[in-house]
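Run: sequence + adenosine-5'-triphosphate -> complex structure.
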Amino acid sequence: MPVGDRRSLLPLTTLSSLNLLGITLRDLLDILLVAALLYQGYKLVVGTRAVNVLRGIMVFAGVWVAARLLGLVTLTDLLGRAGTVGLFALVVLFQPELRAALERVGRPRGAAERDGAALQDLARALERLAERKTGALVAIERRTPLGEYAATGVPLDAVVSVPFIEALFVRNAPLHDGGVILQGARIVAAGCLFPLQASDGTYRRYGTRHRAAIGLSEVTDAVVLIVSEERGSMRIALNGRLGPDLTPTELREQLRELVYEREALSPLPAVPAPEGRP
Ligand SMILES: Nc1ncnc2c1ncn2[C@@H]1O[C@H](COP(=O)(O)OP(=O)(O)OP(=O)(O)O)[C@@H](O)[C@H]1O
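>> structure
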């Protein structure tokens, strides 16, 4: 039997102790698992405010390592102690994000399908509102929890349905003012106040509904949908930018891409600078 064949019959435990360039199979497995864990961790925080904090932590860790290498005992000790306290502070600060991330990990099978059906209903409801020129504002939560904005409105726990969304925005309905917030397939709040986009010139000519949508999309990774009362058009605000008018088919496609296929966190295509009122 050739040597190669004989080697392939060796059990993993024996192979793991083989030492190639000082790296064993066990080391490789260890590195691969840590890399996979780090990648999954990165996917959980990308697009949330935690990314900036993560960068800060890396700078902090870099300074600590440099201080250690240079033998700066007092600085190393000080940073080490601050790091320990900081870890606890981070858990408290990012408690909503951590909870949302763990919920995503433990999401039951079938939830994604339910969300997909809810998005279809949402798109249909917005089309109908646009046809009748009834203004609407809907934020769909992705990775950044929208709890603090939901708290500014009336809490709900309702299944997304075409008539219910239409009823929420009907003129003079008690909750028609402000925005609706969706988490998965459920409407969690209505009549919510979103932060207005700071008037930096680009969106100065837009009314408050559009600026509230852009404002929320600046500070979170939510997909924010707007139906204009004035023009009966449908648009999406994402990453602090307002997208172009969408046809019903385009709206469905965008929702599928941005929300249903959750991994696709790509920004909207570049939006041309607005010329005049929406
Ligand atoms: N901060 C806010 N958060 C959520 N909704 C808001 C906020 N400010 C205003 N709105 C909503 O926007 C409505 C006013 O829209 P306005 O006409 O000023 O905006 P617009 O961008 O011109 O939209 P439209 O094209 O529909 O007229 C309010 O009745 C309210 O429902």
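>> summary
Strands lie at 136-140, 154-159, 179-183, 186-192, 223-227, 234-238, 241-242. The chain has two domains: 25-106, 110-264.
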